[in-house]
């Protein structure tokens, strides 16, 4: 796998956590739980999620680019 992309299946909101889970070899539930727990800490977690939502390509674009 060359990069991170948002998968078509397994999405809850935008697929950011599912994409990160695929990239790092863990379950989407684990990444979602870590993201939720990180929101209890001060910092720009919501901004980071939105930036990843915009920056990460959909799986359709990622697959089309690899051909």
From TrEMBL:
<feature type="domain" description="Phage shock protein PspC N-terminal">
    <location>
        <begin position="4"/>
        <end position="59"/>
    </location>
</feature>
<keyword id="KW-0812">Transmembrane</keyword>
<protein>
    <submittedName>
        <fullName>PspC domain-containing protein</fullName>
    </submittedName>
</protein>
<keyword id="KW-1133">Transmembrane helix</keyword>
<dbReference type="Pfam" id="PF04024">
    <property type="entry name" value="PspC"/>
</dbReference>
<keyword id="KW-1003">Cell membrane</keyword>
<dbReference type="InterPro" id="IPR007168">
    <property type="entry name" value="Phageshock_PspC_N"/>
</dbReference>
<keyword id="KW-0472">Membrane</keyword>
<feature type="transmembrane region" description="Helical">
    <location>
        <begin position="33"/>
        <end position="56"/>
    </location>
</feature>
<dbReference type="InterPro" id="IPR052027">
    <property type="entry name" value="PspC"/>
</dbReference>
């Amino acid at each position: 796998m060359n990069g991170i992309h948002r998968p078509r299946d397994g999405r809850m909101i935008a697929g950011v956590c599912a994409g990160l889970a695929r990239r790092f070899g863990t379950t989407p539930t684990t990444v979602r739980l870590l993201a939720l727990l990180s929101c209890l800490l001060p910092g720009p977690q919501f901004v980071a999620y939105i930036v990843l939502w915009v920056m990460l390509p959909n799986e359709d674009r990622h697959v089309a680019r690899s051909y």
